[in-house]
């Protein structure tokens, strides 16, 4: 068997205070890092929440514009059909009812 292990030397008050200060510095650094990371996480959550909310508003605006486009399309279709009917009637009216003179060959 070998010799017994050396007993650790007892630390002086100055060494113990320096070690405690070092430990406190490390703990403060960990705490500040944790706080910084939590702030970054909170900022990301706020950003995601804002984007989601804006996306919901965007979808609502999109639906309103689709409805407006549908109304506009139908209105233009009615104007187109009305114009075709008026042109058809005016063409038939001028050709058959107004022109009563017989066709003469020259």
From TrEMBL:
Q: Where is the composition biased (Acidic residues)?
A: 12-24
Q: Where is this region: Disordered?
A: 1-24
Stretches that traverse the bilayer: 77-98
Would I find Membrane among this entry's keywords?
Answer: yes
Cross-referenced InterPro entries: Neuro-gated_channel_TM_sf (IPR036719)
Q: Which UniProt keywords apply?
A: Membrane, Transmembrane, Transmembrane helix
In Swiss-Prot or TrEMBL terms, this protein is called Oidioi.mRNA.OKI2018_I69.chr2.g5352.t1.cds
